[in-house]
Amino acid sequence: MSVDTILLHACCAPCAEYPVADLLGQGIHPDLLYYNPNIHPRFEYDRRWEQVIRLGEIRNLSASRVEDFRMKDWLDHAWEEKYDSRCEMCYSIRMDYVASYARELGYSAFSTSLLVSPYQQHDKIAKIAEEAARRNNVEFAYYDWRPHFREGQAMAREDGLYRQKYCGCIFSLDDSEWKEKIIRDFPEGWEASR
Ligand code: SF4
User: Domain containing 126 — which CATH number?
Assistant: First the structure.
């Protein structure tokens, strides 16, 4: 691929570690974009952004955030109107926005750190991102980074980045085996943030 700067959607800092290293190793400069309306509650949404800033500082990359916090959409089951599942809504909202942001800011290509996770629906993400890219006339840079997931997590540990124990939305928090401990660590009043 003939790009040397790419917009990299960072779903979180630990997942972005390996993609960043891989892109830099190929001579491709990633600008980080934090656009994750799926991360709840508010405290966690801000905390994961702070870690993306830290990763940007460590690797000397620019990191931007576009504010969009949508816990209410998840609680209201907004996916039922248009999508097969909440995860399909989650991928679609993010990839649509990232593709349009890439177009508006003049990037020729974008990618996403979601492609590193063996816990995500990899093929669905790639398909949704390809479609979003086509609609926005930008390139989606596909990578299968999954074999390097553990490597990226180890890098995040070395860098002292916070590594969360649930995917992001309020339902995934509910499903997490560490739910009680996670909630104990949240600041008082976290449930009020929607
Ligand atoms: S489980 Fe993860 S991918 Fe699915 S909706 Fe929740 S945050 Fe998004």
Answer: 3.40.50.620
